[in-house]
Each structure stands twice: as C-alpha cells, then as structure tokens.
Fold this sequence. Notes:
Blueprint: H1 11-36, H2 40-63
Keywords: Membrane, Transmembrane, Transmembrane helix
Transmembrane segments: 13-36, 43-61
Amino acid sequence: MTYVDTSDISAKMFIGVLLLLLIIAPLISLGVLRLFQSRKKSGLLLIASGIAVYAVFQIIMSLS
C-alpha cells in the first residue's frame, strides 16, 4: 500500500478545491436536477450562479 504525500499542497490549492467541492459543484448539480424537474428558470439560475462563482474565483486568483 502506498501513501500520498499531501504536505506540498499550497493554501491556494486547498481553498480552490474546497470552494469547488462545497459551492460550485453543488450549484451546478442542483441546476441540472431542476432542469430535469422541468423548472427551467430555477435550473438555469443555479447553473449561471455556479459559473459566476467560478469566474469570480478565477479573477481573484489571477490578481493574487
């Protein structure tokens, strides 16, 4: 059995993955779920907000 060394993970990378897993992915998956439930406005709004959070995150990361 091998172990993965996680001591080289930077704080930026950790925060990025955390943001992706806790905010962006659930927004997009809930949006897809709402689209399957024939709630187009709510689904598209959730998907758009997930993309917007990703875009804001990319802008913040490029500035720092």
